[in-house]
Amino acid sequence: MTVSKRRKGLTVASALLGGVLVLSACSGGDDKASGGGDSSQSKVDEAAAEKTSEAQIKITPEDGSDNASINNSAAVTVSKGTLTSVKMTTSDGTEVSGQISADKKSWKPSVQLERSTTYKLAAEAKDSDGRVAHENASFSTVSPANSFIGNFTPDDGSTVGVGMPVSINFDKAITNKAAVQKGVTVSTTSGQEVACHWFNANRMDCRPEEYWKEGSTVTLKLALDGVEGAKGVYGVQQKTVTFKIGRNQVSYVDAKTKQMKITQDGKVVRTIPISAGAPENKTYEGQMVISEKFKETRMNGATVGFTDDDGKGEYDIKDVPHAMRLSTSGTFIHGNYWGAKSIFGSVNTSHGCVGLQDAKGADDPNTPGAWFFNNSMIGDVVVVQNTGDKTVAPDNGLNGWNMDWAQWKAGSAA
Fold it and tell me: With contact defined as beta carbons under 8 Å apart, do 358 and 344 qualify?
């Protein structure tokens, strides 16, 4: 028992002694230093502190970040000093251009960053005494697999007809529609209320209750950077788009009378004889918006389900003149040079399109087809009536006008 107690006491004493030795070593090596005296080490520390720059550099995002924004990342700021240099490179050494602000307090890249890219930043600054500070960071931007974009129409700076909606097609399925819609705003100088409608997880269109007011300007703002559209999938767009509304032109196709009346500001400016879909291939009814224009294009029946017994298209015309798309499924209003002039205004013969008399080569400006093409723009409305067919689906093309306002607003996630 005596020996055991003695050994235990020695062990405790050794531990205490070890603690004293460790403390002495960290504070300079003698009892005087541990008591707060002036040691050689403390003098070295004080001298180093005096030489340290007061400039404080901040790099965002933080070192090691991933899924960083391609719009708002790579910001460098400094307090208690001024920036002297900032270098940003990709992982392979390619330098990214950037600009230090006039007051030398901040820096940002002058180009948009790329997705799925690792960037390195090295910044240097000086304080008022000329002492230099350094900061380094590395981060990776969001990958395509973890991000989404919205492909939109119409284009920035374009002039379009009164029926042109804002249509956004997202490249990833959106499950958090409310958050994404909150990041999209559409306004117009006419003061019209604009509502957005989700057709599915990838498409959202926005429009007013009635056609846009002619001469107005519409602004689309995409503030989607960092917005989580689905689990782990973030937006990357930060963009403002404006487009103008042209003159008010709405054309009315009557398959019964086989005439089309073109109106501007509600007044008929011209009447053109037409040939709509034959009884076995009726043309959709409803309000349709011109979404594309082609001076000449190929039309093959096989692409829209019109095939013969051999599986070939019932028709294949490689130079259809003055074609304007009215639906995604293949409804066009276009010139027709292969039909006899006598059919226009007298009989419906097409596979579902609306045909106008025209010339091969689309080089005769005096034909009805050429006139209508030259006097139409993307976003103009063509209303098709009395065909006996169903109304075109609102999401078949840019044709949301075929949904009443209450239904339209019911499809909003806001």
Answer: no
